[in-house]
Amino acid sequence: MLVAPSILSANFGKIDEEIKAICEAGCDLIHVDVMDGHFVPNMTIGPVVVKSVAKAATKPLDVHLMVENNTFFVDLFAPLKPEYISFHIESEKHPHRLIQKIKALGIKPAIVLNPHTTVETIEYLLEDLDMVLLMSVNPGFGGQKFISSVVEKAQKLKELINKRNPNCLIQVDGGVNDKNIHELKDAGVDVVVAGSYVFGSNSYSKAIKSLQI
Ligand code: DX5
Ligand code: ZN
Q1: Average pLDDT of span 166-187
Q2: How far apart are CA 102 and CA 80, in angstroms?
Q3: Does the beta carbon of 9 sit less than 6 angstroms from any atom of ligand 1?
Q4: Which portions of this protein are annotated as coiled-coil regions (predicted)?
Q5: Rounded distance, CA 99 to CA 107, Å?
Q6: Which CATH number does the domain housing residue 148 bear?
Q7: Disulfide check for 175: which of 11, 118, 146, 189 has CB 3.0–4.6 Å away?
């Protein structure tokens, strides 16, 4: 299991130190939540701050867009060379076109599904995707309760992935901790995002290792 700490729960007063600490603690990716105050009722960081995050990071960035105007934000973040950019299917009218655009920029495309969105919605996009992110909370905030129906959803998605594109990874984001990590692993999940569980712990390295099962 790969682990991507969400910096939403980090101390932004000392973000450089926080980024260095999670990298040294052995994280696999750094999850950057981008919110526009329209698609979700919260706002986070833009490219200026993410640039300093990228500078301090020794692990690849995983940018999670929670915005209405996806194309605008893809153009804004592409120069920072993240490994992944993920966008919500609920906010995009032309997901296939946007996937091709992200690929052309040399970035791995991923699609995010809110808790109510069924996996069949993206069946015919799977062959072009490097990752699908299943939300296990409503997007917008860290520290929320895990919505356990995501486990069954991951199992269904795994079946579609096996049929359409076995290289596509499954990521789960929201309320992940050392209690639910085993059922996620059993369901076929490859990558988990963890914000409050990692940044709220006494030892980032112990918390990260407890999820790398
Ligand atoms: C929620 C974000 C998550 C969030 C996860 O909108 O996408 O990445 O930071 O935080 P926890 O792990 O605390 O649920
Ligand atoms: Zn996220």
Answers
A1: 98
A2: 13
A3: yes
A4: none
A5: 10
A6: 3.20.20.70
A7: 146
pLDDT at position 143 is 98
Check residue 133 and give its pLDDT. 99
Q: How many A from CA of 119 to the centre of ligand 1?
A: 20
ipTM: 0.99
Give the chain's domain count.
1
Q: Is the pTM of this model over 0.95?
A: yes
139 lines ligand 1 (CB under 6 A): yes
Q: Which residues are catalytic?
A: 33, 173
Domain that holds residue 50: 2-211
Write out pLDDT tens, residues 94-116: 999 999 999 999 999 999 999 99
Joined together, the tokens standing for residue 90 give 């609920």
Place 118 in a pLDDT band, splitting at 50, 70 and 90.
Answer: very high
pLDDT of 54-79, one tens digit each?
999 999 999 999 999 999 999 999 99
Using the atom order of ligand 1, give the atom closest to the CA of residue 195.
12
CA atoms within 13 A on the CB side of 133: 30
Ligand 1 midpoint to CA 9 (Å): 8
- d(CA 149, ligand 1 centre) in Å: 17
Which ligand 1 atom sits closest to the C-alpha of 35?
6
Task: Write out the E strands in the chain.
Answer: 2-5, 30-35, 61-66, 84-88, 108-113, 131-135, 169-173, 191-194
> Could you tell me if the CB of 177 is within 6 A of ligand 1?
no
Tokens read off for 206:
């112990």
End-to-end CA, the chain: 6
